[in-house]
């Protein structure tokens, strides 16, 4: 997994709405053997494998290697 992919997964994890996490908690109560953290991890990995991360957070045209004075369309906040 690339540095950008790991950063994107962290960003998406932090952006998960509280209502989704609460819903996952509800599912955990009704379905035995499900670990919420593992479920979220699996969903994020699936989204990464299927290009959802790239669609939500396009790659920086400068490969995230530039000074702060250069404007780019990166929405990850790493530039």
Write up what this structure looks like.
This protein is an all-alpha fold and 79 residues long. The protein is 57% helix and 0% strand. The protein has one domain. Helix 1 packs across helix 3.
Task: Spell the H/E element sequence.
Answer: HHHH
Helicity, as a percent range: 55-70%
Question: Using DSSP, what is the number of strands?
Answer: 0
Structural domain tally: 1
Compute the separation of the termini in Å.
19 Å
The main β sheet shows up as: none
Question: What global shape is seen?
Answer: elongated
Mean pLDDT over the residues: 67
What structural class is derived from the secondary structure elements? mainly alpha
Sequence-ordered SSE layout with sheet pairings:
Layout: H1 3-15, H2 18-30, H3 36-49, H4 52-56
TL;DR?
With 79 residues, the protein is mainly α. It has helices at residues 3-15, 18-30, 36-49, 52-56.
What labels describe this entry?
79 residues; mainly alpha; 57% helix; 0% strand; elongated
